[in-house]
């Protein structure tokens, strides 16, 4: 039996694994520290460099492909181990992976993502690291990413998922 639109949307990643635990505000400091360390790693490894990103899209260097490829391998191993060993969160909650059905919107989204990445020289993930590293012009890309996310949130229910 094929999923109805409601059933497909209920499997979206939005809030599926949301924790019901309530913490004090200072519990979030660990995420700030992890984010700062991750940002430093991104800058030092040059993956936030506009020139490295342009080299990748011009097929002139393997640097970015090596970083992305190793991240994919680490992610695959991590997901395998989480499933195999039934690893839980640090608060003891189960980690659940929901299967997703492929649809053509993923191709359109991936192409749009790639074009934006190639044009701006900025992947959405390290935008903050780029701004923090002194590439202040990336603030325009950051504001555009926030605006695009807001627009998507507003029109999401009207889009064919």
From TrEMBL:
<protein>
    <submittedName>
        <fullName>YeeE/YedE thiosulfate transporter family protein</fullName>
    </submittedName>
</protein>
<keyword id="KW-1133">Transmembrane helix</keyword>
<dbReference type="InterPro" id="IPR046513">
    <property type="entry name" value="DUF6691"/>
</dbReference>
<keyword id="KW-0472">Membrane</keyword>
<dbReference type="Pfam" id="PF20398">
    <property type="entry name" value="DUF6691"/>
</dbReference>
<feature type="transmembrane region" description="Helical">
    <location>
        <begin position="31"/>
        <end position="51"/>
    </location>
</feature>
<feature type="transmembrane region" description="Helical">
    <location>
        <begin position="133"/>
        <end position="153"/>
    </location>
</feature>
<keyword id="KW-0812">Transmembrane</keyword>
<feature type="transmembrane region" description="Helical">
    <location>
        <begin position="107"/>
        <end position="127"/>
    </location>
</feature>
<feature type="transmembrane region" description="Helical">
    <location>
        <begin position="63"/>
        <end position="82"/>
    </location>
</feature>
